[in-house]
Structures are given as structure tokens and as C-alpha cells.
């Protein structure tokens, strides 16, 4: 094992930047964040090392005898939160370990042996399983999605029925008590599940899935417990009348199901299948989880094509056409499952579950005919959507930061927060309709009007028979029915201007303060609700100004409002477009919808980032952007390699390896063959921590540094080194190495990846980042430009590309101009 | 300049494969195809070189004086056709030069200087232009698409009207003469344009666009002349009654428009804008052309979302989310333009152009209700689509190969071929309806029935008043109207079983023999026509078996038939699904459509590749697949590096450079700094041929090998090295170097890309291919594993990853198992 020095000095010289004099921006971060400045101090105080060779600036001779004696502060390659010093409130970042995923093909001897011996049967098995898993993911997600829908409609329906009955008897306080009580009980159920069983299940889940698909695995984010809580927490949360959706949670649920199936079940719950070992690697898991995310959207919105596009546009960071097809298959299965179940429920066997078809909010009855004033109004809606959307994101961010302080105090506080939001929501939902006047049921919508206060989608509330309260029809309804009401074009004057304004304000604010509480909560439905209400409002105003002869109906304005607000918060385009089309079945609205989405996204993008990106960043998940920042062009790869490099010899002492594993958290170590094995020090490759642990557990040691490769190849199979789920693999503590064994040698060659991707140290950081991101790497070896130097300069990992890290090292670059050409 | 030897020997030793004894499969191919075996012979017979240094196996000392004296047979890096020996009939491959595109960021001194000096204004300019260009592409493509539509409807409408009038007067032979004559004249117009002005405009154009977006630029494929011929050729071709579509040509047209706009016009026609210099690189051009392809589909099918997805799924090989948004913007513009023009034409100002809205084939009036027998029938349609589709591809391939032999004989033969196919088509269209019986116009479709033989979409042909000939209604109509008839569910018995069968057989065969003639010809419409007819046939049969009470209407069966046949030939899924949805506006068909597409693609994939992939392969375009073949795991990068490596010193003699440029067709040369400039031979980077030409043209030479870098940096600007369009850059012949200058030196450092991507020679070819493909490289440097050897082993280019090249070198790998896990 060696420790390379002189690297730091070289870098400073080569770049002409005097780091010492620049001062390091922001404190408070441990480990490599402070990076460069600390290292020199550390070299003398924490590290002791000896030189075996005489290669100036490069330790280690033929038989390396160097090892680390003491390393108090481990260098975290996988750090628990990358954040700037100004961002102190990190939601959950301080509790959950984060691990990078590795999509590189580890070409070591074992892999090659496995590849050569792979039979046609095994290959067929793999392909068959791949498609079977896609089928199963679609099936399970479809079932769960339908169950979710069914449960919500029945629970919420029962609650609303009870309230309506009491209202009809004019027992207003009792009605409120029943309403708020039901909400509270359901909310507490959801919160208890979330707070005690799976804290990771709170929130939307889309940011976490997005981060996972970008290569960041956070602890228990896809665990079975999270799945369970996500399903039931979401049902309780939505049924509790919160302004939350079930769409985000469904995406997370789909991803969890995919992960569970792909992992060969859960070892903890003794649900494993051995023949799923092929999928025990990050690449195949990523594919499965992409399918799962798509299936989730497909199940939530009954939008199979929208699901595929959502996975493609928002969730996934890597994409191939072969995956497109598999995802398409998965969502097709979801669509078939949903349709079959709906046909089954159409005959009234599912309690209060409606007769709804595959189109959730059908507006195709309204024919879009529009002219110039309409288009101007639509542009206004787009701009409004952009402004409201970016403001929404800003406020959600602020609220989340505040909540995280409360939530961190413990599960009790989490539940208290949920209780208060639940009571507030109940008060709003029950209290605000009192401000609305009663309207007589128009003749056109007679069948929807509450004949006896129970049926129909309009609520009578305090009003008499043949009358309805328009605000109550929005508030005291399920979210889906409220959206249906808003999108409806049957009667233009269904909702008063004031009611729409009140509803918009209430939903906008409730949506902001609800996201972040310990309940699974999607963002789609609140956003659609708020957008639809101001869209309808604009439509009504246009009608007032231009007269009733205006082209577009208010329902379609409402739809465009929803589209614009979605575009303003989520910043998706194609997938939203298709999802909305599949939700509403009105293809003729497509040009207007595209226009609105483009405008709102453009406007909102000039203020801040999309809501999911914001949450990813705030959670401290090290997300790799597709484009590199301009300042990265001014740095070279060698500039950001952090920490002293710990490398092994081809035949390394067990003690040295153990020491390195114990006292660092590096996940990849370069292996360097030195004389007499090689003529000159030569980069043999890279070994992974997980592989080292398995190898050491196997105890194939020898007294001298001789090749035992063949023996190892015989004893181990590539599957022994398959990647377990996060937190499930071997740990250093699991190893039992005797003092005697510590002095023995182990042959690392069979597990060394002989062809890691390499870049020259003079490559610009931007170019290296492109390579790193495009190939989904975990380690990128930086080699020296000039021959004669040590064969490896450093290893770049994900966090070396993070802005916080780079700008921490080179704070003068913060002012560098931004190159917007993504 | 140096020539590295010993490489070949090393490779054979390292791999343990005796190439000599294996025999080289197939002959007849020049250049690197035969690769390894030839090189040794060539080394002594074609090449003469002298050694300047004493580095065993590595030529060149401090001041390299070596140069090539004679190199008769240049080694083509960009070869004119990669094909196996069995494929001799290469369409056009032997005439058009092919160039690889390079998406790598060339980090040389000039680039860095340019980057540092880039102002915020310039950055804004770039972003502004990017979006303006997207807007312009959308605008132009929308206009062209509409113009195309308008022209076809008017020309074809006039022709059909004339025929109908003559038929009404029972002057049958004259009617045929008029019909066939019109067709012939139009066909000859199209053929003359194609044969004499732009041979590249023949065919669909989608394969070429696909290849371009994969990084292969074929000569004049996106030239202005091609654009012109594509537009008018397509109009004439479609109007001439050929069984061809305008969709493929529209994609090509969109790409041409994008290329023209992005190139800053055409230098040939003196249409250039200086401020478009930012887009003079392959990356930006690729993005523009992706937008153009999407706009083409959007304009052809009036399907904006489908266009984006088509570009994503079928056309593009590299994709980023930022591009998704820009493409979406472009297609939104197309949609807006089309809608505005259609509103304009709705008032009858456009001659025979119909009142059609944005939905081309609206079937939303038919409500899909289906049960188990229907689903079984749908599965049958899917399987049939797969079988017919793969057979179609197979036959198209065979016919194309035959035609290419004819077409290669000259423009005259091309036109003759077009004439014969035109006559055949006319005979079929006019002759086959005689086999059909006259049917009385049913009451339901009275308005479509020919009142006076002129109006309506049903044709009376030889029949009396209030009667129609069902076959003539399909044959003697525009393709669009024929599809509309087939998709119609108004009357189940409109078309007889026998008529449908005849029409299917005729269209299927005509479609096969028409593609490949010298006329712009899309594949979508023939495939939809054939698919719709057998779909309707199956629907009628289902109805016969199950009785009229069956759920799905024949129109919807017809739609599913079209979907299945499209899936079977083109093998797209999501984009076809969305395109069909946008064409027909029936969202409730989505689950069935997905099912049919999945089945037909699966069935067809087990026989052969998609039709566009086949054509790309047949045209000899070196297409890089997204996945690597299994045998690539058994080779390492060093195994396939072809040809002797020609490298330059940092300060190189002008004569040497000129010689290398003249006698090789390499496009990248490694630059190696040697003592006394460096301590040991050191890979400085890579220079490109085009950059060398510009540098030599500038004549910044010096008498001795000293650094003139600063001077060069002052004299040149990065834009001087911007990449011109194919065939427009400097050529070696343009240089005028005197004998004296030949002996002078030039400093290559300012134009040397100091950080080319590198891989170690021991990396498996599969892994290197992944890197090459994901980053869109043109050159990939292979460096030695062990220090002390020459700093570069070879350069991998696109053709080194082609199956034909690799399997030519290692024929024993052909039998290696296929790993289907893409």
C-alpha cells in the first residue's frame, strides 16, 4: 500500500493558482469537502507512512511493506450529503448513507471466466427473466395502483357520505367533527406508518427515484418497508383530505416493486429467489427501476405512453432504445390490468368506486375552436403558470427547510406536524364553503346535482334541495372529482369567480405547506388543482370581456391552466403533454397545450430549477447533471482529485488491505504492479471494496507474494462478487482475520478490473465529467501526462464533479460566467 | 513522422490467435477490410521508410527525419462502404464518400483561447440563435409540409377528376390513357429530377438521416440540391400514383432544411450568414438535424408529439433532455403553422385541398368495445403483422439489391425503371377495379357516394349512378383517401372481402417493387395501406364468424392492422403508438394498439432487422449499434487497431505532414513529443486532418523546430478551424507549398487536442465500443498497458468496430454465440 505525495504540490504549480491565499469558502463540512487545504496537515498529523523504494515522490518498492498506521478521520468517498455551507437544513441527509452506483463493466479475471463459460441456456434464462420481470412489474404496479384508487375512493367516499348525511340534517358541528375526525384519524395512521416504519416513504419519492436512476442509492429508499408504507400511507394520506396526490407515491411504489422483484426478494423477510442472481448488478437494477417508475405513472394516470415518456424525460439519466421497448411493454401490461379491473368494477362490485374508464378526466365533448383573443389569453395563462410555478417551487423549498428542522426532532414532532396540517386542511375544506352562496342547479347538470344530498358530484352543503354550493363541490370532494368539476365544460357558470379565487388561494397555500410532512404526498394533483382553478378563472374573465361567444370553453381553459402550472413547477414538456392528453382525451388541444407548456417552462426556468431538482439538491443527493458548468472548462481533471491516493500492489499484504478498508471509506483502490513483477510501476487496474471484502472472507492467502490467481478463480464464481443491495453486503467488521493472517499475502489480480476508464490529467474537468456521466461511472482513473511518473495520479469520483466540492477548492471560479448552452 | 512496426506481431502474440492459419473470410474488398493480413505485405511492397532513431521497434529520434516516400494504396479511415464480401450490390456506396462525424470536444490551445475570450454577448447570441434556428426549422418544415400536401392534393385531384369525367362518359380507354399518361409524366418529372440533379434524394431518406445522426455523413445527403429534389420529386412521385408516401421524404426534407439553416446557408449558391459560425461543428449540427427530422414527421403526419418521439426512438443515436425540449418547441411551431394554414384553407381558397383538420384519419366516432374473441383476433393481427412485416423487409432488401444493379448503369436506366414501374402501377390501379362488382350506395354513406361521378370519396368507375365500385374507391383515390376509406367504420360492408384481398396483394407487391426506384418514396403510407386492408379483412372475417354483434368495428380492426404492419416493418413502438394516436384521435384504442405493436415487433424481430436498419446496412453506411456484439468481449482494443500508425512530432517538417495528408486518408494523427522536448516520448495529443490543412494554408513555418505557438494563436482564431460541411473544406490539392517550405517546420502544439479519450490496449473491444459510441467519437487512442513502450499503440475509428472489419480479422469469432441481452 502506498501513499502518493507531491501530487498536491504539482497541481498547484501546474495551475498557477495559490490555494492557500484564496481561502476556503465556507466551513462546517468534514472530509474531502475542504479537500486540498487539509491534506497537507493531515499528511503529517494523521498519517504515518514509510517509504520502501527510492522513486522520488512515489513510495513502494518491489515488495511493498508500507501501510497506514493511523488514519483517524476517514476520507469519505461516499459522503453523507454534499451541500454548500449555506445550506444547513438538509432533509434526512444526516441520517442516511448514500452510495454511488457503478454502471461500469468490471472486467476482471472472474468476469472473463464467467463470460466464457456462460451457456446458451443461461443467456436464454436471462432474457426470459428480463421480460418476465417487466411483466411482473407491470402486473404488480397495475394491481397496486388500482387497489390504491379503490381504497381511496371507498374510504374518502364513506367519509364524505357521512358528512353529507349530517349536513343534510343541518347538524353542522357534528358534520365538521365527523369530517375533521375522519381526516385526523387517517392522517395519524399515515404519519405513524411514515414516522416509525419508513421515514424514507415520506414525500413524493420521485426525487429519490430520479437520484437513484442518476446513480445515487440512498439508504432504504427502495426497501420493502418503504414500499409497504408508501402504499398504505398514500391511501390514508389521500383519503385524509390532504392536498396531496397519489401519483408521486405511485412512481416510488413502482420503483420499489421493481427493486424488490429484481433483488430476488428481500433477504430480511426470507423472500429470495436464487435464479434472480443475474440481476444483482447496478445496470440491470437500473433498467428494472426505470420500468417500475414508468409503470407507476402509467398506473396513477392510466396513461401508459405518458408513463414511458415520464420515465424517459424526468426519471431516467441513461436511456437506450432497448429499454424504451421494455418500458413500453411494462406500461402496456399496466394498461391491460387496469382496463380488466375497471371492466370488472363497472358492474358495481367495487363499492363506491366509480365507473371511470381509462380516461380519468374526459373533456373530449368540448370542441376546441379558438381565435386570436383566446390565444392571447392562453399565452397569459402560460406566463401566469410560469410565475406561479416558480414561486411555488421557491415556497416549497423554504417550507421543506423549515419542516426538516421540526421533523429532525423525532417521530413525535413529525406526527404533531401532520396533525396540525390535517386540522388546518379540515378547517379550510369545511370552513371556506360557508363564504359561497347557494346556486340553483341548472337544468343541464341535473343528474350531477345532489338529489338527496348524497349522490352527484355537486354538493348541497348548507343549501336547500335543487341547490348546490360551488365551493363545497370543490372542497368536499375527492381531489379527482374536484378536477373533473373544474375541467367540465357542461355549464360555464357552475363556479363563481370568487369561489374559484378562494379555491385557488387555498389549494395553492395548502399544497405548499402540505408537501414535506411525514406522509407520502404527490405533487401532481395539488398542482393540477391549483392550475385548473386559475385556468378556469382566466376563462371566465375572458368570457366576461369578450362575451359568451368566445371560442374556448372554460373547461378547456381550466385544462390549459393545469398544463401551465405543471409546466411551471415540474418543467417537463413532452411527457406532461402526453400525460395530459391521455388524461383528457382531447387531441385537438395539443397545439395549445404545447404552447402553454413551452411558455410556462421558459418563464419559470428563468427563475429557478424544477421542483424535483430542487428537492434532490436539498436532500443532499449528489446528482450528476447532464451538462457541465462553464467553470469546469477552466480546470483539469488533475485539479480536483481529492485525498491521498491509497493503492495496493498486485500481491498485497492482508493487513494493509484490512487497514485501508477499515480506516478509509474509499470504494475503489488502484492496483499497481511493481518490480520485480513488472519492469516499472504499472497500473494493473482497480479493485472494489466489495470485491476485496469477499476475497478476504474467502481467505485465499499465501505466505509469500506469489500468484494464487488460478486457485481463486477455481474457488470463486463471479456471482460471489455480485453486488448486494445497499447495506446488505459484507462489512469490514464481518471479517475475522487472525494476527498471523495479517502478515500473509493475497493475490489481487483475479479481482482487478484491468481496464478501468482512464483520462489524462490534463483533460478539462468538463470533458472528464462528460465521460463520467455518459458512461455512468463510479471511479475514473486519472493518469499522468508524462511518462516516468507514478502510473496513476488519482481517482475521480462522483463528488469530485459536484459544484460544492469544486467551488470549495477553487472559490474564485464562483464568479465565472455561466454558459447557458446546455 | 513515424511508422510503428512490431505492433502487429505483438498483437498476435498477445492473443494467441494464429491469424495466418485461420484464413481470411471473403475477398473483393479493398483497404482495411482485409486488414491485418495485407499489412505485412504492404509494409515491404508499398511502404518505404527509414529509421531515424534507435528505439527498438519505435522509429524516430529527437528530430524526426523519417517520412513516407511512397504509399500507393491509401489506408482509408473513411471508407466508401463497409460491407461483407457476400454483399456485393451496394446502393450508391461506390460513388459517395462517407465521412465520420466527431462529437468530441477538441481541446487544443485555440479552443481554450476562444473559450476564455468568449463574452456574455456571444453566449447570449449563441443561445438566441439556437432557439431562432429551431423556430425557423419548424416554420420552414411546416410550410414545406403544407405546400407538399397542397400540391399533391391538387395535382392528383386534377388527374383523378379528369379520369372520372372520362369514365362517366364510358370512354374507358381514353380514361386509362389520361390516367396512365398523367402518372407517367409526373413519374418522369420526378425521375429526371432524381437521376440528374440529386441521386441522393431517391428513396425514403430516413436511413440516411438516421446514419447522419449516428455520425456518418454521406456525400450531398443534406445538400440544397437534395432538398430541392426531395420536395418536388416527392410531390410528383406521390401525385403520380405510386404506392409511396410523403412521410419519409418529409423527414429528409426537415433534416435538409435544418442543415441548410445551420450551415449558414449554402456557399455554392452564395447564401451564407456569418453569424451562424457558432454552428459550424458536428455537435450543433446534429442537434439541428434532430430537430429537423422531428419537424418532418410532425409536418407529414400533423403529429407534433409523434415527431419528437420518432426523432428520439428511430432517428437519433444521442439524446439529451435539453434537446427534447428544443425538438418539442420545433414541432410545436410546425403544429401552429399547419393549423393556421388549414384554417386559411378551410374557407376553400386552396383548390382541391380538403377541409382536413389536424387529425388526418379521424376514427374517434367508433367506440371501441371489445371482448375475448376480439382480443384473440387482435393477437392474430399482431402475429400476421409481424410475419408480413419481416417478409416485406426481406423482399424490399432483395428488390433494392436488384434495382441497384440497374440504377448503377446510369440515369437513363433509372428513368426507364421508373417508367416501367409507373406503367405497372397504372395498369394495376386501373385494371384491377374491373374485377370488382358494383355495389349500391348504402343509405348511411350517401354524402360520400359519387352523385355525378366527381365528388365523394367513393368512385363509381364503370358503375351506374347511386352505385360504387369498392376497389376503384381504393385504387383510384389518393393514398390518404384510401386510408380514410379503410379506417372508416360508417358501413361495415363497404368493401367486399375479395376486394380487400386484391387490394392488399396489389399494394403489398407494388410497395415492395416501388421502393428503390429513383423517386423520393416514403414507406409509411404503403405499409399503412397494406396493413389497413388486411386488418379490415380480419375484421370482416371475425364478423362473419361471430356475427355482427362483435365488439370492435371493422374500421378499428383496420387501424390495428396498420399498426401491426408498421410495427412489423419499422420496429418502433412508442413513437408509432403516438403517431397513430395523433393520426386517428382514438385514445381508447391505446391498450390494443400497444398490444398489437408489441406482438408484431416481437414476431418480426425474430426474423430480421427493421427496414431502416436493413437499408442503412445495405447502403454500406457504417452504423454504430448501441449494444456491442458478444464476440467483442473476446477481443481487446489493441486487437483491432488497423494499419500502420502515422504520427507527428510536436514540431514537424511541413513535407512530412503534406506527404501524410496526400498519401493517407487518415483523419487524425497522434502528436508525440520526443526528446529533447520531452524527457521521454510522450503522447502530446491528436491533430485532425482538417486542422492541419488550415494550419499549412496559413504558412506559419519556421526554419527550425522551435515553438511558434503564440504567433499561431495570434494569427488564427478558433473559427478558422470550424468544421465546414462535407466536401467543402480545404483539400490537400488546395495547398501550395514550395520545395523550400517543405523542409521547414511547423509547430503543431496549438492545434493538438491535448486530451483525446484514451483506453488501455487490454480493454475489451466491447467496453471500448461503449465509450466510443456513447461519446460519439471519431478517434479513440489506444495506449499501451506497460510503460516504456511507445506512448500510443493505435487509433480506433468507427470502422474498427464494424462487424465486417472485426470478423474479417478474426473469422473464427463468427460462430461465437450471440448474446441477446441488449
UniProtKB/TrEMBL annotation, chains A, B:
Region listing for Disordered, in residue ranges: 1-35
SUPFAM superfamilies hit by this protein: CBS-domain pair, Clc chloride channel
Keywords: CBS domain, Chloride, Chloride channel, Ion channel, Ion transport, Membrane, Repeat, Transmembrane, Transmembrane helix, Transport, Voltage-gated channel
Bilayer-spanning residue ranges: 128-151, 172-201, 221-244, 288-311, 323-345, 375-395, 500-529, 541-566, 572-599
Protein's name according to its UniProt entry: Chloride channel protein
UniProt cross-references to InterPro entries, sorted A to Z: CBS_dom, CBS_dom_sf, Cl-channel/antiporter, Cl-channel_core, Cl_channel_pln, ClC
Keyword Nuclease attributed: no
Membrane-protein topology: Multi-pass membrane protein
Subcellular location: Membrane
Residue span(s) of domain CBS: 751-814
Record-level GO cellular component terms: chloride channel complex
Molecular function GO labels: chloride channel activity
Protein family according to the UniProt entry: Belongs to the chloride channel (TC 2.A.49) family.
Range of residues in the leader sequence: none
Amino acid at each position: 500500500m502506498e501513499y502518493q505525495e507531491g501530487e498536491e504540490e504539482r497541481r498547484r504549480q501546474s495551475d498557477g493558482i495559490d490555494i492557500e491565499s484564496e481561502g476556503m469558502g465556507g466551513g462546517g463540512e468534514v472530509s474531502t469537502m475542504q479537500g486540498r487545504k487539509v491534506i497537507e496537515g493531515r499528511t503529517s498529523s494523521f498519517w504515518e507512512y514509510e517509504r520502501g523504494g527510492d522513486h522520488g515522490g512515489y513510495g513502494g518498492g518491489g515488495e511493498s511493506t508500507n501501510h497506514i498506521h493511523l488514519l483517524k478521520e476517514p476520507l469519505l468517498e461516499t459522503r453523507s450529503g454534499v451541500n454548500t455551507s449555506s445550506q444547513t437544513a438538509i432533509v434526512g441527509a444526516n441520517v442516511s448513507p448514500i452510495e454511488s452506483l457503478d454502471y461500469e463493466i468490471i472486467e476482471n479475471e472472474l468476469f472473463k471466466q464467467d463470460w466464457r463459460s456462460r451457456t446458451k441456456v443461461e443467456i436464454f434464462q436471462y432474457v426470459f427473466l428480463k421480460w418476465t420481470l417487466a411483466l411482473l412489474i407491470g402486473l404488480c404496479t397495475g394491481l397496486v395502483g388500482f387497489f390504491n384508487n379503490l381504497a381511496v375512493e371507498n374510504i374518502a367516499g364513506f367519509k364524505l357520505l357521512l358528512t353529507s348525511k349530517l349536513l343534510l340534517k343541518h347538524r353542522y358541528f357534528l358534520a365538521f367533527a365527523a369530517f375533521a375526525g375522519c381526516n385526523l384519524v387517517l392522517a395519524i395512521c399515515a404519519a405513524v406508518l411514515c414516522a416509525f416504519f419508513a421515514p424514507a416513504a415520506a414525500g413524493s419519492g420521485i426525487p429519490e427515484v430520479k437520484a437513484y436512476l442518476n446513480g445515487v442509492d440512498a439508504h432504504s429508499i427502495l426497501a420493502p418497508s418503504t414500499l409497504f408504507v408508501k402504499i398504505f400511507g398514500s391511501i390514508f394520506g389521500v383519503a385524509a383530505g390532504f392536498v396531496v396526490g397519489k401519483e408521486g407515491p405511485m412512481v416510488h411504489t413502482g420503483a420499489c416493486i421493481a427493486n424488490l422483484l429484481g433483488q430476488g426478494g428481500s433477504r430480511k423477510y426470507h423472500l429470495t429467489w436464487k435464479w434472480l442472481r443475474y440481476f444483482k448488478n447496478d445496470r440491470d437494477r437500473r433498467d428494472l427501476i426505470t420500468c417500475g417508475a414508468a409503470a407507476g405513472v402509467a398506473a396513477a394516470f392510466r396513461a401508459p405512453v405518458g408513463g414511458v415518456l415520464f420515465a424517459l424525460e424526468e426519471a431516467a439519466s441513461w436511456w437506450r432504445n432497448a429499454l424504451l421497448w421494455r418500458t413500453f411493454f411494462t406500461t402496456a401490461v399496466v394498461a391491460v390490468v387496469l382496463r380488466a379491473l375497471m371492466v370488472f368494477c363497472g358492474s358495481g362490485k367495487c363499492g363506491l368506486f366509480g365507473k371511470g374508464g381509462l380516461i380519468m378526466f374526459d373533456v373530449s365533448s368540448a370542441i376546441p375552436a379558438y381565435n386570436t383573443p383566446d390565444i392571447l389569453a392562453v399565452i397569459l395563462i402560460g406566463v401566469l403558470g410560469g410565475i406561479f410555478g416558480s414561486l411555488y417551487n421557491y415556497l416549497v423549498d423554504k417550507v421543506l427547510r423549515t419542516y426538516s428542522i421540526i421533523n429532525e426532532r423525532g417521530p413525535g414532532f413529525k406526527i404533531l406536524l401532520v396533525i396540525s396540517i390535517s386540522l388546518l386542511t379540515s378547517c379550510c375544506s369545511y370552513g371556506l364553503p360557508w363564504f359561497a352562496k347557494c346556486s340553483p342547479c341548472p337544468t343541464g347538470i341535473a343528474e350531477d346535482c345532489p338529489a338527496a344530498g348524497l349522490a352527484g358530484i355537486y354538493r348541497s352543503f348548507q343549501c336547500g334541495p335543487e341547490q348546490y354550493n360551488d365551493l363545497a363541490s370543490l372542497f368536499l370532494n375527492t381531489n379527482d372529482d374536484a378536477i373533473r368539476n373544474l375541467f367540465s365544460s357542461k355549464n360555464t357558470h357552475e363556479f363563481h369567480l370568487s369561489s374559484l379565487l378562494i379555491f385557488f388561494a387555498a389549494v395553492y397555500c395548502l399544497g405548499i405547506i402540505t408537501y414535506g410532512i411525514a406522509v407520502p404526498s404527490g405533487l401532481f394533483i395539488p398542482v393540477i388543482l391549483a392550475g385548473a382553478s386559475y385556468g378556469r378563472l382566466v376563462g371566465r374573465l375572458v368570457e366576461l370581456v369578450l362575451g359568451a361567444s368566445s371560442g374556448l370553453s372554460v373547461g378547456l381553459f381550466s385544462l390549459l391552466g393545469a398544463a401551465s402550472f405543471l409546466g411551471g413547477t415540474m418543467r417537463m414538456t413532452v411527457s406532461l403533454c402526453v400525460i395530459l392528453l391521455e388524461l383528457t382525451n382531447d387531441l385537438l388541444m395539443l397545439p395549445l397545450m404545447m404552447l402553454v407548456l413551452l411558455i410556462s417552462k421558459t418563464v419559470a426556468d428563468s427563475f429557478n430549477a424544477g421542483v424535483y431538482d430542487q428537492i434532490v439538491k436539498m436532500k443532499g443527493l449528489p446528482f450528476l447533471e447532464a451538462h457541465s458548468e462553464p467553470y469546469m472548462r477552466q480546470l483539469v481533471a488533475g485539479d480536483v482529485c481529492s485525498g491521498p491516493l491509497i493503492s495496493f500492489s498486485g500481491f498485497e499484504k492482508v493487513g494493509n488491505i484490512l487497514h485501508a478498508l477499515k480506516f478509509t471509506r474509499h470504494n475503489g483502490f488502484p492496483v499497481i504492479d511493481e518490480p520485480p513483477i513488472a519492469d516499472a510501476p504499472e497500473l494493473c487496474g482497480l479493485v472494489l471494496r466489495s470485491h476485496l471484502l469477499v476475497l478476504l472472507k474467502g481467505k485465499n492467502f499465501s505466505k509469500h507474494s506469489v500468484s494464487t490467481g488460478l486457485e481463486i478463480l477455481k474457488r470463486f464464481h463471479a456471482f460471489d462478487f455480485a453486488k448486494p443491495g445497499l447495506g446488505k453486503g459484507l462489512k469490514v467488521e464481518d471479517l475475522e482475520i487472525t494476527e498471523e493472517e495479517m502478515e500473509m499475502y493475497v493475490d489481487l489480480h483475479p479481482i482487478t478490473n484491468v481496464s478501468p476508464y482512464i483520462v489524462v490529467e490534463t483533460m478539462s474537468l468538463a470533458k472528464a465529467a462528460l465521460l463520467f456521466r455518459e458512461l455512468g461511472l463510479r471511479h475514473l482513473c486519472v493518469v499522468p501526462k508524462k511518462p516516468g511518473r507514478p502510473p496513476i495520479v488519482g481517482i475521480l469520483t462522483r463528488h469530485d464533479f459536484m459544484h460544492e466540492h469544486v467551488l470549495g477548492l477553487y472559490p474564485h471560479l464562483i464568479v465565472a460566467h455561466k454558459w447557458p448552452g446546455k
